[in-house]
Here is the input.
Amino acid sequence: MTNFETIQLEKDKRGVATITLNRVEKHNALNSLMIKELTEMAAQIGSDETIRAVVLAANGKSFCAGGDLKWMQSQMEKDRDGKMEESRGLANMLGALNSLPKFLIAKVQGSAYGGGVGMMAVADVVIANSKSKFALTETKLGLIPATIGPFVVNRMGENFARQVFYSGKPFTVEFAKRAGLVTTAVEAEDLNQAVEEEISAILKCAPGAIADAKALCQNLAGKAPSSQADYTANQLADRWESKEAMAGIEAFFNKQTAPWINETVE
Here is the structure.
């Protein structure tokens, strides 16, 4: 398989592949290269008949801190077409993981924000550290969680999504479990055992039947989240070009207070 810079791949003799996010110094934040490599990795794993289950994990203290700040800055400088292209790239990556014809477990050892929540949303099972925190903070910058939105709403449902899409407040593992985003929460030292229990069960099932059952679930659920990539790319581009987002992002990078905070504080 191809060598990658931002992710690692290991495969054991049982056919269990582990994809590990490996931008530890950046808390595994997503950038263009990581998105590209995850997309390519998903394609390779999907076509490898010797792989029966996949674990999506991360090195370091964080599972994924969302979008890399330099990547965000580069998007600010792009025109509308460039912004939409970046959005579609992220949507394609999440779509590739979502439609992976293998059992996909997200092993969340630390906190996840933005795109990290998106990757959790496309896993079949999410095993998380009970101390982890999650958040969608885009609205604090004048943006919206558009690209990951279809995947997260598909997983959590509109009711729970409304509670986390707007305020940007962190939410706990307990809330994530109620919302269906997290399957099982355990102490950090028990993560490996909990993942192994899921793998042991899935390896007793027929690989082809698992792939077909996964496709069945997605077809019965209705419209595929990845089919909404153009809509979400346009929605996000609209926000990037709004006066709110321009002011909010400028304030963030300059370590200043966003203008709307001053307007609402008595």
The longest strand covers residues 16-21. The chain has one domain: 7-207.
